[in-house]
Description:
2 copies of one chain form a homodimer. Chain A is mainly alpha-helical. Chain A has a domain at 1-55: Multidrug-efflux Transporter Regulator, Chain: A, Domain 2. In chain A, 69% of the residues lie in helices and 3% in strands. A two-stranded antiparallel ribbon of chain A has the order 1-2. In chain A, helix 5 (78-88) crosses helix 10 (177-210) and helix 6 (91-101) runs parallel beside helix 8. Chain A starts with a helix and ends in a 9-residue tail after the last helix.
Amino acid sequence: MRISELSRRTAVPVGTIKFYVREGLLPPGTTTARNQAKYDTGHEERLRLIRIFVDIGGLTLSSIRAILAAIDDEHVPLNDLCRIVHRAMHGERLVADALHAAVGHLADARDTVDSYLESLGWVVAPDAPERDIIASVLAILRRLGWAGDETVLGPYAQAADELAAFEMASVTARASRAETAVALVTRTVLLEVALVGLRRLAEEHHLSVHFRGSAPPNG
Amino acid sequence: MRISELSRRTAVPVGTIKFYVREGLLPPGTTTARNQAKYDTGHEERLRLIRIFVDIGGLTLSSIRAILAAIDDEHVPLNDLCRIVHRAMHGERLVADALHAAVGHLADARDTVDSYLESLGWVVAPDAPERDIIASVLAILRRLGWAGDETVLGPYAQAADELAAFEMASVTARASRAETAVALVTRTVLLEVALVGLRRLAEEHHLSVHFRGSAPPNG
Lengths: 219, 219
C-alpha cells in the first residue's frame, strides 16, 4: 500500500509516519518509483505498536527505539523484554523524585520491601527500580505517622500476583517468539492503564456508597 | 519554627517553600519580626502533602491548588474529593491521546465498558474519563485482533474492587473530616504507585519463572 493508505488505516498523519521512518522506528517502505514507496501489513502493525507506546505508555522516542530493538532481537529473553518496558514507563522520574521526597526513612523501608519480596518468593532483579518506588511509598506513609510495613502491601501484592498469572496464561499461548513478544509488551502497557482506571473507578464507587447521604454523588 | 527549620525537617529547600507560599499552596507564616516568620506543624504537614503530589503524583501546581482547596472546603463531599484527585493524575493526557489512537472502534468499546460497569453495580459518574481510558484499551486490543470485551476486564475489576474496599476500611476510621480527607487523598496517590510497582514486579517474576532456562533472569 502507499503511505497515504497506511496513514488512513492507522489514523497516523503522513508527516508523522515519515518522521518515524527518519528516526529509525519504522523500516522504510520498498521503493517502487521515484518518490514512491510501498508499505505492507508489517509496517501497519509496527506503526500501531509505536502509537500504543506513545499514546498509552507515554514513552519517549529513545525508549521506544530500545523496546522495538529488543522485540526484534531474538537473543533477548522475554523476561528481559518486559523489564525493559517497565523501566521505560515513567520509572526514572518516579524513582529520583520519590527518593528525594522520602530521604531519611528510605533505607529502613527498602529493607522491609526486600524482605517482603523474598518472603513472597518473587524472582525479581535486585536492582529493580520498583523496589525503591515501593519503599518510598512505605517511607512516606511512616513519616505521616501511619503503618508503613508489609501488611499495607499484602493485598496489593496478592492482587498483582494473581493478575500477572492471568496475563501470563493469555500471552504464552502464542506461536512464535515475535508474536509472544508483541503480545507481552502491548499487554503490559495497556493492562496497566486499564488496572489504574478500574482502581480509580472502584475507589469512587466505594466512596459514593460509603458517604451516600452526605451529598449527591454526582451533584 | 523558622523557615530554615521547616526546610530541614521536610528536606524542601527554603526557596521552594517561599515559592509555594507565593503561589498560594502554603499559607504564609506568622510574622514575628522584620523579615522573619514562624511556621508550625500545620505548615510542615501541608508541605509534605504538596511534595507527595509533586513527587509521586506528578501533579501540576494548578491541580495541587485545586486539590488543597477541596481538602480545606468542608462543603466538598469526600467522594468528590477523590474524583478531583483522580482527574488531576495524568487523566487528561491519557484520554485525549488514547481517543486519537483508537478512533473508529471507540464507540463500541465505550458501550462495552458502560454496560460492564452497570452490571457490576458500580456507582461512578457517567462522565468519568476513566470510562474512555478503559474503552481505549479495549478498542486497541480489538484492533490488534485480540479479545477486547468485558472478560478481559473481569480479573482487573475484581482486584480493583477488593483493594478499594480494603482502603475504605483503613481510611474511614479517622476522627475528623480534615483527617479523613488528607488520609484519603494521600492513600489514593501513594497506593496507586505501590500497586503499579508491585504489578510490574509480579509480571517480571512470572516471566522469569515461565521462561526459566531460556536465559538467566538477572543476566
